[in-house]
Amino acid sequence: MNLMFYLEKDLLEHGLSFMVIVFVSVPILLVRGGILFSALSCFGSHWFMFTFCPFPTTRCTRDMSSSSVGRRLVACLLNVSEARRKELVETVARAALYNNTGVRREGTTVLNIFNDHDYNRSVITIVATIDSIREAVLSACEKACALIDVGAHNGVHPCMGAVDLIPIYPLGEEVGVEDCAEEARGEMPSVAQGLTERVRGTSAFLFGWADSPLQRGLAQRRREMGWFKKTPDLQAIRPDVGPQPQNPFGLTGVGAGPYVMNCNVTIDTQDVAVGRSIAAALRESTPGGLPGVQVLALPHDGAVEIACNVESLKGGPTGPTPAGEPWPCFSIGGQPYCHVPASLIAARVAELAGRQGVGVKGTALVGFTPHECRGLAEVALSQRIAEFWKERGNIRM
């Protein structure tokens, strides 16, 4: 096992005594005894990042909440339909950070860039104050639309737009889901309206809290728009904002809600039908499925990946976890939220796959938990690190 450690002692004042980045041959995710561990591990074509906190998680939460900047933070996990040209994706990320003259936008950082070659999809984690997020996101979208033609996209992950998804999540105590929804779909200059104004020919559908008053979830809106079809019929789509979808821009989903994580489990088979049966059993909509979990089964790097969107649920945990591990919890506007832990997803996939004689190759939390996202953003902003994904040991997934 090849290990490399990168220590950052100056994280102490932010509730993280140091960061440990570990390159390992097998991905690991550990939350044991109320202590949050995190590592960056390499598995196939993925990099996975975790953080390490030697204090109880309540201590980390209390310390993170002390920052006045942190209280107003929001995150946007910008999904763009390109990963094989990494320099292009980084150009999009930098557009969120700097204006046209190269001046840095205050209160904004890019924590991470996830590139997946097989999916040909990247996720750019932009964190900013609620006052700064709109301009950062719209500038990145403008650049992406200028550089990416969704009509030429070739990847196993479904997509409909050059900028495929713009979800906005609250991180700080002084920001509610309603505030994020207003940024996403409110009157000009909201993100949805601003995108269609700045880039003529773009169009958008709304989901989550931005889809007022119905608040339809992302999975439902994607089904309505034909997102899951191999070749979506753009002419049959009626967008919520903007003109009829057309190439090269396609259709963009814009939404808001409590934080959504991504947890992927790779099973040791090339049979996508096996993966689909596991995905069906995991989904929230299936009796006995996991609450808040939406799932796709996709061919990936010679295996099958069970790709899960893990939505945050209002209230406390609704079920047990392996070894009695706690459900990760946080609050928005004083209301408690929690989400299914990655360990439970991994255990359930292993159980379902094992019934069909298939093993599990690895499990990964893609990106960050809400606590990690908030804590790392406070570190980046306090030290004025805009391109955090590069400055901290070239963190990348």
Description:
Residues 72-258 form the Formiminotransferase N-terminal subdomain domain. With 397 residues, this protein is of the alpha+beta class. The chain has helices at 57-64, 86-97, 133-147, 177-185, 191-198, 218-225, 272-282, 342-354, 370-382, 388-391; strands spanning 31-32, 35-36, 41-43, 46-48, 53-56, 73-80, 108-116, 121-129, 163-170, 203-208, 251-256, 260-267, 293-300, 303-311, 313-314, 329-332, 335-338, 360-366.
> In angstroms, what separates the terminal alpha carbons?
19 Å
Kindly estimate the percentage of residues that lie in beta strands according to DSSP.
25-35%
Tell me, rounded to a whole number, the average pLDDT: 83
- Helix and strand element order: EEEEEHEHEEHEHHEHEEHEEEEEHEHH
Biggest sheet statistics: 6 strands, mixed
Total strands: 18
Helix content class = 25-40%
Structural class: alpha+beta
Shape: globular
Biggest sheet strand order reads 7-8-6-9-11-10
How many distinct helices? 10
| Gyration radius from CA atoms, angstroms | 20 Å
Low-confidence regions: 1-66
